[in-house]
Amino acid sequence: MDSPIVSQLFRHLSRHPLCRSRSNSNRLTRQLAGLPRCTQRTVVSGSAADDARRRESNWQQRTDLFAADKTDEYKRYPMLTASQLRTRKDRPRRVKMLTRDFIEDSLYNPSYGYFSKQAVIFSPGTPFDFPSMRDEAEFQKQLDRRYQEFEDVLDARQYDATRQLWHTPTEIFRPHYGEAIARYLVSNYKLSLYPYHDLIIYEMGAGNGTLMLNILDYIRDTDPDVYARTQFKIIEISPALADLQQSNLRRTANTRGHSDRVSIINESIFDWKTYVPSPCFFLALEVFDNFAHDSIRYDPFSEDPLQGQVLIDAHGDFHEFYTRDMDPDARRFLEVRRRATAGAAKSYPHPLGSSRLLRRLRARLPVAANLTPPEYIPTRMLQFFDVLHASFPAHRLIMSDFHALPNAVPGSNAPVVQTRYKRHVVPVTTPFVHQGYFDIFFPVHFPTMELMYRAVTGKLTRVLTHEDFLRRWAYVHDTQTRSGENPMLSWYQNASVMTTL
Fold it and tell me: Do 299 and 307 touch, CB atoms closer than 8 A?
């Protein structure tokens, strides 16, 4: 099911009261099931001759499905950024944006962004009793049951067919996952910083605040001297999640005891202005995957990069354009990556990785694409490293994320784009979707990311698989079933962890 159809449905939903009745939702389900597959594609602007195409500065990607030429609108519509749209209450029309600005606006806009308004983080309630379970299959059944119960409670308050519900390892393996992170923090703090410095922890993208509470509970219970010197600071871009974190902190007497050690800062890390000279640990768990990316295609003849833009027309439909006039941030990313990875043993996937002759022959075939498939580059990731280097010079980063993702859209380092409808996941094949209703998350190419982090910050690092990190720092017997299977170790096999040494 392709995104223009899904986007059209969600635009319809957003123009009417959401989920007033089950009958309306059922009717929309039947609409969704009966719609034909179709993809919005655009045609190249300018002459069809090869030399003329290479001279064009603005391109629309040509594929095997042709749509209306939007070149005139492209010339007339203003160029906006995600920052300029933060105060907007409605999704923009008659504008054009860089791909990364469109993704950032879709995920983080305060009025309609996915994380600001749509996303709900699953909480299983009472921690799972893994040693009492027969095997991993029984854990999956219990998780499915709790998922259904959790959503049933939400539906009893207000039914919502488009609820965007997702989970994290912190929640489903609570408190064991957070305690593993806490052991890492305390051990490294006592090894090199105690007693000369406080234990200062920053967390970015803290969700429900569960990781913060699990870490502070563990330190308070196991090492009161370290707890007395602990400060925990959350940097949260979403006002809704910042309020939820504050609410969870005040929920019980046990959690309220941490209040004087916690600060919740409702701000984007990319707007950070405070200089923090003190040594600190910086947690970014499953954060990089939602960093905004630029879309880059390459001329198969000259191999020049072209930067992606999306035009949003008067009807709210999306049209891709590519320009040789790349902005400084994208150009800098390509240059830093080139220098950081020069001579590296492992290369990164790249659209120009195939034979130059084959690329040129394919480009000359009838109705062939005039540009390579897209490469998605994490421009925001590099900007995050800049912030760490400039504002947190004594930081130690602990980040984890997915190094591979199934069912991604076409392209190199491409994202998974999906929504939920009536408790079913609906994947689509493009990131240009109705803003706010779709999660857009990317894999992290750890070899390249690690080299770029080292190049920007000058720090040394270590990368481990998710399982190896947990074997080192978790009490793995706490999450082992009677069969010997261990869900905390076997799940998230497609994730890795990088730490600053």
Answer: no
Q: Are 85 and 109 in contact (CB under 8 A)?
A: yes
Q: Which helix (H) or strand (E) holds 203?
A: strand 199-204
* pLDDT score recorded for residue 25: 34
The overall average pLDDT reported for the chain is 88
Query: Rounded to whole angstroms, how far apart are CA atoms 83 and 268?
Result: 11
For residue 280, give the H/E element and its range: strand 280-285
Half-sphere exposure of 469 (CA within 13 A, CB side): 26
* 3-class SS of residue 490: helix
pLDDT confidence of residue 39: 33
Lowest model confidence (mean pLDDT) among 5-19, 107-121, 204-218: 5-19
Q: What whole-number distance in Å separates Cα of residue 311 and Cα of residue 300? A: 24
C-alpha to C-alpha distance for 425 and 443, rounded to whole angstroms: 19
Closest CA to 451 of 294, 337, 350, 283: 337
- Specify whether the backbone of 46 is left (phi greater than 0), alpha (psi in -120 to 50) or beta: left
> Which residues make Cβ contacts (< 8 Å) with residue 240, sequence separation at least 6?
116, 117
Burial, 378: exposed, middle or buried (Cβ in 10 Å; 0-12, 13-18, 19+)? buried
The more confidently predicted of residues 45 and 459 is 459
Contact call for residues 370 and 302 (beta carbons, < 8 A) = no
Q: What does the angle CA 296 – CA 429 – CA 169 come to, to the nearest 5 degrees?
A: 95
DSSP-derived 3-state class of residue 293: coil
Burial 452-489 (b: 16+ CB within 10 A, else e): bbeebbebebebbbbbebbeebbebebbbbeeebbbbb
Beta strands across the sheet bearing 395-402: 262-266, 230-236, 199-204, 280-285, 395-402, 495-500, 461-465
Distances (CA, A) of 369 to 71, 305, 375: 18, 15, 15
| 246 Cβ contact partners less than 8 Å away, ≥ 6 residues apart | 264
Token pair recorded at residue 440: 């857009």
User: Do residues 324 and 408 make contact, with C-beta atoms less than 8 angstroms apart?
Assistant: no
3-class secondary structure, 218 = helix
Q: What is the DSSP letter of 165?
A: E
Distance CA 78, CA 96 (A): 6
pTM here? 0.88
Tell me if residue 489 falls in helix, strand or coil. helix
Residue 231 has a CB neighbour count (10 Å cut-off) of 15
pLDDT grade for 36, boundaries at 50, 70 and 90: very low
Q: Which residue has the tokens 């905004």?
A: 292
CA distances from 470 to 16, 39, 173, 455, 489 (A): 46, 42, 12, 27, 7
